[in-house]
Each structure stands twice: as structure tokens, then as C-alpha cells.
Request: fold
Amino acid sequence: MAIESLLQNNNKSLKDFKPMPYPKDYVVSFIGNRLLYEERQYNVVEQQRLFANLYSSLTDEQRGIFEEIMDCVEKQQGGVFFLYGYGGTGKTFMWNTLSAALRSKKKIVLPVASSGIASLLLPGGRTAHSRFKIPVPTLETSICNINKKDELAELLKMTDLIIWDEAPMANKFCFESLDKSLKDIMSGSTHACDKIFGGKVVVFGGDFRQILPVIPRGTRSDIIHATINSSYIWDHCKVLKLTKNMRLQAGATTPTTDDIRSFSEWILKIGDGTMCEPNDGYASICIPEEFLISNFSDPIKAIVEDTYPDLLHNYLDSNYLQSRAILASTIEVVDDINQYITNLLPGEEKEYFSSDSIDKSDSTNFDAYEHVTPEFLNALKTSGLPNHSIKVKVGATIMLMRNLDQSEGLCNSTRLTVTRLASHVIEAKIISGKNIGNLIYIPRMSLSPSQSPWPFKLVRRQFPIIVSFAMTINKSQGQSLDNVGLYLPKDVFSHGQLYVAISRVKSKKGLKILIHDKGREPMDTTTNVVFKEVFQNI
Reply:
């Protein structure tokens, strides 16, 4: 029963691992569909109190949007919305309000996000791929792995609202696969199979100024045509817009209207690509002097000291660590910064090596790779895969690179502080997301990239972590920080990266930028990349 309970928390069951025995007296046999049970166990009185508090804090703009969506849910005739707002305009606040409103009426709402870290901000949130069993990679012909007799299918039939945050960063085929699956699941309902998403009310959210779907080796055209507003689904979407930056107002200790407005407008000009006109998507822009770090001899030392002042007296303070990070455009630069900070920390460094191999079952011609050396495999690096060598100390800040246990807040991009290093396990304390302060144990795992950049599938057995005093701009998406140090020895290279980096902060005083050329001479200009065609039909 204990094993089954743990598996149920992660949407698995002993029934999935035949011929494992199933506990006959397990409580699920009495309550029926465990997924429905989970969504109906919310305390109605508590949700009513939460909703009253949230609703009273809505702005007029937010309240109008809330009423329109709720009216559609109440009519039960289906509908698709896209809540469009730049970072800090209160999209997450809207998701919380909608969720509390429906749960206070014993209705079912399924909030999901395209990334793990964003899903932790949603009440009862999950990643879209895990909730709807969307295959990876997702292709034009893909459908969700949901059987019409599954518990999940029954849950979807009873669902009143689906919320999908960070939609612009997901491939359009993810949404289309859900549409096809919901039409199939709802095919028994009158005319439901003819309606988009089977007649369900679906609200997408996000900002097209942020980083778009990652298409390996994809062209600019490939990226644009992978977004949700290039899908047939967009023809059914009603766009609702949020325009007021709540994050900056909340983060400013002595806010002035002019300061907030000017900083917000500067961020939006970068996001819209209008800072320097005309341009074809790539433009060199000048950074205001107030944000620049220009007096330095060692740039890495300078950005570290500015972002992590008095580090050695605060590196064990989770409040200090969770509110700040250094961002860079490439993983190579991030690795250099993390190694520099790790060397500063007291204590003995421990190095963990991976065990690498080629997946024989995935290769049609494994004989061609039988002479590939371990040294060659050890040298391979790609996005989403830990390095062969991981150097870490007690007190170091690390980030998960895989979803370990979403119910406990352990997902891709969760940040933790190392508390103990053993030979086969790492003990760490959560410092971001939910369950901050909890101690967890991280094992080695066999990991492979979802889309291999090589003609074979690499299997790397290693701890699914990366040291994360610094992180790539892409990894920072979905996070809010008090202090951001943006280090740009190499320019950004993709749509929205510069916008995402500068919009992570809650106030303008929390942003510092260091730019230098190959000779380490300070610069006040950098490249901004914006594919403007993505905004055309919003």
C-alpha cells in the first residue's frame, strides 16, 4: 500500500508495472477514479475564502477578463481564450483567481504550464506534457496517450476549465494533439466532437515577446511556424489583454509612477524590437548607463560581487540565494561562472562522473558505433543533459534538470542548496517553488536527450543537476527575482532572450548588466533579437 500511495502521487500505479501485485484493500477501490477524487478534495470553505480575497484585489482590467471567462464556463458551450500580457501583468494571479472561483463551487479546473518551474506557481499545477500525456517529441500526427477508458479520460470529461500557461513556448503540435484527443474523448456528447477541444473551455496564457518554441537546428521560419498563433487553433481564440505591470509596482520599495512607467516602457520596447528602427529582427541597442557595470578588470569577479554581495557570509541563507541569479546566453559562460563561485566557497569539492553508453535498442546499426570510446561519449554536451563531470560543494546552489516529483515541487528548474554529499546520493534543501526548506535526496539517473543531436541515442547515468548560481536565460523563464546580473560576453541569439533576462526583476534597481568585447573591454551596446512576424495576428 505504501508503494502504491507513492506511485499514485506521481500519477502512476502498480497496475502499470505488470506483473507486480496490486493491494486489494487500497482505498482507491472504494472511491473510484483517483484523479477525480484529487480534484474534488479541495476544501470548499477555504476556497471560498481564498476567492473572496483574490477577487477583491483584481484590477478593473482583470475583473472584466475574469467575468468573461467565467461566463463562458457557466454556459458550458465551449470557448478558447488567449490571455496576452507581458511579464508581471498578473497572469498567474488570474489563474489563481479562476481556480479558486471554480473550486469553491466544486467544479474541476486543470491548470498546466509548458515548463515545470511555471507549473509550480499554479494551484495544483502540472506540466502540460505530464497532465495530458503529450508525447515527446510532439509531431503533426501526434495524439495524447489517453485511452477513452482511462481515469484521465473520465477526468477530462468532467473538467469545466483548462488553463495552459506559457503557451507561446510550446510547439503548436502539443495543442493540436490535445484538441484531437479531447474531440475523441467527448465524441459521445452531442455535437461535442465537432467543437474545438471537444467543447471544453480552454484558456491559454503567455507573452509572445518571450522565448518561442525551441526547434533543434530550426530556422527563423521554422520557429515562427511552430507557435500557437500559427495553428488552426488560433482561429478559434479570443485574445484578452493585460497591460498593467503589477510585478514592478510590487517590487518597488519607493515606487514612483514615472520610474515604473519608464522602466516598463523600456522593457516593452526591447520585447517589441522597437528600440532601434528599422531592423529585420536583429538590432544593436544601447543600454542605459544606470544598469551597466563598466569598471572592472575581471568581468566574472565583477558580476559575481555585484549580484552576490558578501557571498561567503550569506551562501547558506536560502532567502539570500533564492532572490538572485546571474544570467548568460550560453551554457559555456554559465559553467565558467558557476565554477568560479564554487571555487570561492569553503569546504572540500566533490566531483561526480557519469557512466555513458549508447542505447542499443534505439540504434538500427549499433555495430557502426561499437568502437566509439567512453572518452568520446564523456565529452558530449547538449541542452537538458548534465555534464560528464559535476563539481560541487556543500552550500552550493544547484538546479534540477529533470522532473523528479512534481507533487513535492521537484521539477525541472527547481533550485536547491546542497547540504550533504555522499557517494551515491546528494542531500539538498529546496529554495524555490513550493515546499521551500524541505530536505530531499537526489539519486543518479539514466538520462537521454528527448531529441538527440547525434546519430545515436546517448544514455548518461548521472545526477540530474547543474550548479546554478548562474543559469542560462532560457532556464530563467517563468521566475521572478529581486536581483539579476546579466552577463553578456556573447550576444543573445534567439527571439526574446534579452527581453526575458531584463524582465525577471521586480524593480529596476535589481538589474545590472555587464557587456564586454573579446578583449574584455566594457561595452554599452548589445544585440537584441525579435522576430516581429510573430506579433502580426495577435
